[in-house]
Design goal:
Order of helices and strands: HHEEEHHEEHEEHHHHHEEEHHEHEHH
Number of helices: 15
Structural class: alpha/beta
Largest sheet: 5 strands, mixed
Strand content: 15-25%
Length: 487
């Protein structure tokens, strides 16, 4: 039996933990009463209860399923899925992939299970960025309660692109079948434009939001992309004429900064992507730093709130910056998305090299060799035993960005007294967070040369400052564009 949330007196909206404690016995009595009213329990519910009881006695391993799957939840209510039963049966975590897996149970062979589980998986795919924090915490709690250390220590989960259906065969052995469920975007309004079927759940959510932003805030039709040679329309792309008007930027000053940077005709600035692609991290970086490029007092105020004991005054901010000549550094095209040069409170010249991530994954190329390894000294940030892991493709780009900062510090001219590498990423980008967590395991405990911060934390700190109206308006526009997602 279930206890509903809302009008039911036992669990009402807004209820606190302290309130629930005093209602516990009443809730138990209610559940027992409802159970006694069940004259003929569902065979399917009995099958589900058998699996859950067995899992609770065996570190959440479910009988008949792979040992890699661990039970964490049953009967999650699904909104908007057709059918008489809008509840999932079981939800598990696959410990080999850290993915959330939906399981549909039947008491006997039933082909309707396939469409049911596909609908549930698609629902979770669409709303997973919102559901993720709850299920991650739930997995941790279940792992703690039932002595599954792998669940208790999970820091990141993703949504599986498949579901499972199961029923007992004639010999009582559980039959399990995997059902692939490609990511889908449900009920996309026509004016939002075409989406991309192969997007990850987070990218799909962000692409849809940028499509909403174009249609409802900018009020212009969609364009083609993602490159200048593309013919396919996407909801997150601007037409050339709208891109040339600067509609991808939150302020005319930022647009002017972008045009000036394009005119330099060097580095990794891609004019079409910068002007036309609302989903790209490059225009996001300009929207974040563009006003600071032209107002160093603003830059000092904002970044002093992040590093209050370090930044006395900011001397300059550069976008898409790579030190020259590159043969004196990594001898490749590695660049910072933004670069801050500042004076600390000892009047030393220092810097922060910055990478900004929105939805693009880290580069999967593997770069290594003597021109990289020569910057790894005894006092470098990396653990000696991590040397063979540094160039792993999962974090190769992260390592090279970090290494670029170290190479700048180690120059013989001693221009900079201190420097660090800062990664700014979206709070819903779980893949990025997972990469960061793995990379940090390669660093010495006392290292302060690599820092990561989520976009929402950064903007929330800045929003609490006393800023002029134009800059407060800029931060509000930034939230609408990148953080207050509509889907």
């Amino acid at each position: 039996p279930r206890i509903g949330i809302g009008n039911d007196p036992y669990i009402y909206l807004g209820m606190r933990v302290s309130d629930i404690k005093f209602k516990m016995q009443e809730r138990l009595n209610y559940l027992q009463l409802k159970r006694n009213e069940q004259t003929s329990p569902s065979s399917e519910n009995q099958f589900e209860a058998y699996i859950i009881r067995a899992a609770q006695k065996n570190k959440l391993i479910m009988p008949g399923f792979s040992d890699n799957l661990r039970f964490i939840h049953s009967q999650w209510r699904i909104q908007g899925i057709p059918g008489t039963q809008n509840f999932t049966d079981l939800i598990a975590i696959d410990l080999t992939t850290n993915q959330l897996v939906i399981i549909e149970l039947k008491y006997k062979e039933d082909n309707t299970a396939f469409s049911q589980v596909a609908g549930y998986v698609n629902y979770f795919q669409r709303y997973f960025t919102n559901l993720n924090p709850f299920f991650l915490k739930l997995a941790n709690v279940m792992g703690f309660l039932y002595k599954c250390s792998e669940l208790a220590s999970l820091s990141v989960i993703e949504m599986a692109s498949y579901g499972l259906v199961a029923w007992p065969d004639k010999n009582g052995v559980t039959f399990v079948q995997k059902i692939d469920c490609p990511v889908t975007i449900l009920n996309v309004p026509t004016e939002l434009g075409p989406q991309h079927e192969s997007d990850s759940p987070f990218t799909a959510k962000m692409r849809l939001h940028q499509s909403w932003y174009r249609a409802n805030i900018l009020k212009v039709p969609c364009g083609v992309g993602p490159t200048k040679q593309s013919n396919n329309e996407y909801g997150n792309m601007l037409k050339n004429e709208d891109g040339e008007k600067g509609l991808n930027f939150l302020d005319p000053i930022i647009f002017k900064v972008a045009k000036d940077r394009i005119a330099q005709n060097k580095g990794s600035v891609e004019s079409f992507r910068l002007l036309n692609n609302l989903l790209s991290s490059q225009p996001m970086c300009f929207n974040l730093f563009g006003l600071m490029v032209r107002d160093l007092d603003l830059a000092t105020q904002l970044w002093n709130s992040i590093f209050p004991k370090e930044i006395k005054i900011i001397k300059k901010i550069l976008l898409e910056y790579s030190p020259e000549p590159n043969r004196n550094f990594l001898n490749d095209a590695t660049a910072f998305d933004a670069f801050i040069e500042y004076v600390n409170f000892n009047d030393d010249l220092c810097f922060i090299g910055i990478e900004t991530k929105l939805t693009e994954p880290f580069s999967q190329a593997n770069y290594d060799g003597p021109h990289y390894r020569k910057w790894i000294f005894q006092d470098s940030p990396w653990l000696p035993e991590s040397a063979n892991k540094l160039s792993d493709i999962r974090h190769n780009q992260l390592w090279r960005d970090h290494l670029l900062a170290i190479s700048m510090l180690k120059q013989s001219n001693g221009q900079y007294k201190d420097g660090k590498f800062l990664l700014i990423h979206h709070p819903l980008d779980n893949k990025c967070a997972e990469t960061v967590a793995v990379y940090k395991l390669l660093l010495k405990d006392y290292d302060k040369s690599f820092i990561n911060i989520t976009l929402d934390d950064l903007i929330n700190i800045w929003s609490r400052l006393s800023l002029s109206l134009i800059y407060s308006d800029w931060l509000n526009k930034f939230k609408i564009r990148y953080l207050d997602l509509q889907y």
